[in-house]
Amino acid sequence: MAEHFKQDSVTAVAVRIDAEHPHGVVFDPHQPQLRVTDLGAVRGDGVFETMYALQGHVRKVDAHLQRLRRSSTITEIGIPPEESWRAAVELGLEEFRVRGQLPEHLSIRLTATRGVDGEPASDDPQFAGTYWALFTQVSETMLENRAKPISVTLLDRGYDAGAAERAPWLLLSAKTLSYAVNMSALRWAKNHGFDDVIFTTSDGQILEAPTSTVLVLKKEADGPRLITPVLETGILPGTSQGAIFAAAEEAGWKLGYGPLTPEDLYDADHVWLCSSIRLATPVARIGDHELAVDEGYTAQLISFLEQDKPVNHPV
Ligand code: PLP
């Protein structure tokens, strides 16, 4: 263990994967690592996943690795095989244990970039780019805020519901590193007095939030129905939504997939934004429309996530 790790009170660990270290090697995330010519930095040309580990148990690993593979196929960025990522995750967790402090709440971010233009890191396309896993403690602010009701604004994402199918080069459903637009929308929302954003298509369909999936609950005569937008519009297939749906179905709840309009959200009994780290955050207001918040249902969704069911998306 390097000296700087012992002195490092910031609980961050990083693991690199390359052809020489197909099962990963620990490096210091506080030291420079990435070449300035890496296309991940130059063009945002890469893909990533963010996973949540509670007490060292990483949730929905299979679903995240499947989605990473899917993003890599869409972007044609070669990535190491699944066993490399699994080994890297284990190595990172072990590094925390060796340091004697495995944080209770960890964010594990897997990143793969296209690497340095014209200089593949290996002849093997599975290792030609740049790959790492970054483990950081989930902030206190996130932990305190994630179940607190929020206000959101609807923002036009600037393309219609058919764009994903018509224009696959837009990479709409891949989880790429190019999140500048998503972050800009969040800043816009905050500057206008909202906590978060729900994107719509230019023809008025509900998409997703900049870092979360939209989940709607309708109370029907024979029980609750959970509804989420269709994936055909190019939104990210959410692993949290998928895990919630899997557990809810077993609990006898009904499920549904949009298309959803803003009116569907205003008329819903409850709306949440879901993601791996935030879990299920209730939405109390969309623009000028107040929504009811129910702590019992929020707790139920969070307990569905605790079951960590395999995710099965309809596409
Ligand atoms: N949609 C977008 C655009 C995201 O970035 C994310 C997660 O970061 C999600 C949805 C939620 O995905 P998951 O539940 O797999 O974390």
TrEMBL record:
Write out the entry's keywords from A to Z.
Lyase
Q: Does the keyword Acyltransferase apply?
A: no
The cross-references to InterPro entries, in alphabetical order and at most eight, read: Aminotrans_IV, Aminotransferase-like, BCAT-like_C, BCAT-like_N, Class-IV_PLP-Dep_Aminotrnsfr
Q: Which GO terms describe its molecular function?
A: lyase activity
Domain of life here? Bacteria
Q: Which family does it belong to?
A: Belongs to the class-IV pyridoxal-phosphate-dependent aminotransferase family.
Provide the protein name.
Aminodeoxychorismate lyase
Query: Could you tell me which Pfam families the record lists for this protein?
Result: Aminotran_4 (PF01063)
TM segment ranges: none
